[in-house]
Amino acid sequence: MSMARNRLFFSIRAFALQHIRRQSLYSGTSQFPFHGESRFHIVDLRSDTVTKPTARMRQAMAEAAVGDDVYREDPTVNALETEMAALFGKEDAIFVPSGTMGNLCSLLSHCFGRSEEIILGDKSHIFCYEQGAYSQFGGIVSHLLPNQPDGSIRLDQIESARRRDRLHQPTSRLLCLENTHNLSGGRVLPLDYMRQAYEMSHKLGLQVHLDGARLMNATVALQCSPREMTQFCDSISMCFSKGLGAPAGAIVAGDKDFIDRARRMRKALGGGMRQVGILAAAAFVAMENYETKIAADHTNARRIAEAVQALRSPFVYADYPETNFVMLKLCGVPANEVLDQLNTVTPSEEEHHGRGIIVRGFSWANGTQIRLVTHCNISDEDTTWAIKKIAWVAHHLTQRKPASSKMAAL
């Protein structure tokens, strides 16, 4: 029986390794046969969450000093929390497994009475992509306001949304902002807007939580320090696992009482990770020279957008990106069709470029756009290959379809 189990284990392991190898060599679709590594150059721009740890990061993880973090005995985690609290200008910080848990711990720590209310945007990540967990686990009510195209929420609407009838209505406790703003295409909320929203919220008796999953992209774009931005919020959640390139982990920062409550919430949510210094070590490496890495990502995003603009294609256009999101706007062709072509290598293309190019993107805005996200695993060479592939697809779309006057006018 034991030998049968061992054979099963090794069969599964062999299958998994084969699957991983094949995924690393081609796009994972069945649109073309497996030909080997040298013929395809894959540029994965689906998200900045697809990054892989560098050799230096893996070494730091292997050598990290660890202890039981639930007992506050992990020296690497303790050092990370201290350093990040100082970076954000806050009293304390806590390391959590993910940005989603960071946001949830924050909301539960601000709104710890039943039927308390958060005010947030209708296109915020907290509302759209985190399962309404604040209601599932905290009985928190959400008051949705429309996000503007730049990701902001109108200040007059925030003021009007604050509840004043304590007998019949929920109690307004918290304003949630997001910077950079995902669904707005990586847009950056300016510091002056952050200041106005913070000052008005405090006058209304509201605290401010910042979903800063990509906070460092915002600070690099604005050429400001993290503290200059986080001074305008009472709590902040930031991911190490997006553009910074760590495999997992996020940080939540705020005052000491708030972090004490967040630590309790983290434990209740299953986020006590024991010897988690191995991940904190990755976060330390991720923060090294982050300004240079993120600035390079923004430059590559601008290169792609400028190349698409230069095509003057009637089918695809790109606005100038503020950070590492390139939004390809489509006209007369659905996103899935374009993505299929970006993921397909034809013999004529392979002959033209000298190798096959695969570009992975993400369908967006109900299939009317494609999101491309640059990140620390995308080099200047990768960007050049991506531009070549997009130009190839745009050219063949022009040959196959009649031009759209709406997009041609752009």
What does this molecule look like?
The protein has helices spanning 2-25, 55-63, 75-88, 99-110, 125-128, 133-138, 155-161, 191-203, 215-222, 226-230, 256-268, 277-287, 290-311, 335-342, 347-353, 380-400, 405-408, and strands spanning 40-44, 92-96, 116-121, 141-145, 171-178, 207-211, 235-239, 250-254, 316-318, 325-330, 356-360, 362-364, 369-373. A hairpin with a 4-residue loop joins β12 (362-364) and β13. A 7-stranded mixed beta sheet has the order 2-8-7-6-5-3-4, with helices on both faces. A 4-stranded antiparallel beta sheet has the order 9-10-13-12, with helices on one face. A two-stranded parallel sheet has the order 1-11. The N and C termini lie far apart (69 Å). It contains 17 helices and 13 strands. With 410 residues, it is α/β, with parallel strands linked by helices. It is globular, with a radius of gyration of 23 Å. Residues 20-38 and 404-410 have low confidence and may be disordered.
In short:
With 410 residues, the protein is of the alpha/beta class. It has helices at residues 2-25, 55-63, 75-88, 99-110, 125-128, 133-138, 155-161, 191-203, 215-222, 226-230, 256-268, 277-287, 290-311, 335-342, 347-353, 380-400, 405-408, and strands at 40-44, 92-96, 116-121, 141-145, 171-178, 207-211, 235-239, 250-254, 316-318, 325-330, 356-360, 362-364, 369-373.
